[in-house]
Design brief:
- By secondary structure, this protein is α+β, with helices and mostly antiparallel strands.
- The protein has 9 helices and 24 strands.
- A hairpin with a 5-residue loop joins β6 and β7.
- The chain is elongated.
- It starts with a helix and ends with a strand.
Length: 418
């Protein structure tokens, strides 16, 4: 949006407010920080106040229009809540690659760390396990997962784009890209410092166990292990695993399958809320029973739509942007309010209970994940709260008239317009 169109929009909003009987004060007319001094380009009177002659990275600056020219309602500062896989270094091996954003790279992200991984056709992420829970969403292709629980009950399953998996801490598993294009997915660990580059690997353990111990453990001669890899495989190129049914038959246990499957189809799930502006689909321990420490929502916002003003009372929100363009403002005490822009591959982070919205600023659907370190999804809607508070109290707080309040959505819309 240009400065001229922004000014026209703000002036139009002021005129509308006046027509509705909202008190027009000198402070409100600045369209910004209710404390002094007024902020934002619209409040700059000197022609040189907006000059920015210093060194620039135009490519980078163009991605963040609301950082270089923030809304005048932004005030003070807060911890950076934008990161991206787009500039995270890749670890590339024969069979695929991975890149990650942890708290070391993204200080605010204390509860979740993220990994973006690609496995080539038949590429394998070697047998391993973690000290943290692993939650993942498939974004492209197909992947075959294997896992065994603490009771010795195995599961082998194929997952497609839009599907999830959840591996509790300590349960060993593997991943393999299948089909003509392999697989791509995003992993969220329920610990901001967790790293995909520091996992407990099968090859590492075998290589650092004396041969006579291996012999005693497996009941085979020690020289049976003479060709083991001396360096871990991590990601490597494997062979076609064959039909799923054959793998499932090969691992079948008399104990049966796990009580709750470790995979879940989120994209096929009916939305919990759908409006003209978009929809929200939720997976947590209430429907994805295995996922005991991670809850998630898949959000689709249509062009012109907005994820309503809201907050989450039970956990920080880690966002992964899958497609489209959007912007988010986060509100904190102070007051502090900062706006940033997001595109595919970017990551957002909102601390627990901080108010925010996400607006579609592009011409295509904005699709992103909301991920929480919690067993259940929880949200408080601003409009829902205000329409379920005694009307007189709300009108006295906001200096609005009854006819204005009557137009507020009375049920949590999630995505506006409804």
């Amino acid at each position: 949006m240009t400065d001229l169109s922004r000014r026209k929009m703000l002036v139009g909003a002021a005129a509308s407010a006046a027509a509705l009987g909202v008190a027009a004060t000198a402070k409100a007319a600045t369209f910004g920080n209710p404390d002094n001094p007024a902020e934002g380009a619209i409040n700059a009177k000197s022609p040189t106040s907006l000059d920015d002659p210093g060194p620039k990275n135009p490519g980078l600056a163009s991605q963040f229009p609301d950082t270089g020219n923030p809304p005048p309602t932004d005030v003070n500062g807060m911890a950076e809540f934008w990161a991206s896989f787009n500039n995270a270094p890749k670890r590339i091996q024969d069979g695929g690659w991975a890149r990650q954003v942890t708290q070391e790279d993204f200080a605010i992200s204390t509860e979740i760390s993220g990994v973006n991984m690609r496995l080539a056709k038949n590429g394998i992420r070697e047998l391993h396990w973690h000290q943290q829970a692993e939650w993942a969403v498939m974004t492209d292709g197909k992947c075959r997962i294997t896992i065994i629980d603490e009771l010795g009950r195995p599961q082998v399953a194929d997952v497609k784009a839009g599907d999830l998996w959840y591996f509790p801490p300590g349960l060993p598993h593997s991943l393999q890209g299948i089909g003509p294009t392999g697989a791509e997915f995003v992993i969220a660990f329920d610990n901001g410092m967790a790293s995909e580059f520091n996992t407990l690997l099968l090859t590492d353990w075998i290589a650092h166990t004396p041969p006579e111990i291996l012999s005693a453990n497996f009941g085979v001669p020690a020289d049976a292990f003479k060709n083991i890899p001396l360096n871990n495989l991590w990601i490597f190129q494997g062979k076609d695993p064959g039909p799923l049914a054959a793998d499932q038959a090969a691992v079948k246990s008399p104990l049966g399958p796990p009580t709750f499957p470790f995979v879940f189809s989120l994209s096929d799930l009916p939305p919990v809320r759908k409006t003209a502006g978009g929809m929200v689909q939720i997976a947590d321990s209430r429907n994805f029973r295995a996922s005991s420490t991670v809850a998630a929502a898949l959000v689709t916002v249509k062009p012109g739509g907005m994820r309503e003003l809201h907050w989450h009372p039970n956990a920080d929100e880690w966002q992964y942007y899958i497609s489209g363009e959007g912007r988010m403002t986060v509100f904190d005490t102070g007051p502090r309010a900062i706006t940033n822009d997001f595109r595919a591959g970017d990551i957002g982070y909102v601390k627990k209970s901080l108010g925010h919205y996400v607006q579609n600023t592009g011409n295509t659907d904005l699709v992103f994940m909301e991920i929480f370190r919690s067993d259940h999804y929880a949200e408080v809607s601003l409009s829902d709260w205000l329409t379920h508070t005694p009307p007189q109290m709300v009108m006295e707080h906001l200096n609005i008239t009854p006819d204005v309040l009557a137009k507020f959505p009375r049920n949590r819309p999630d995505i506006v317009p409804v």
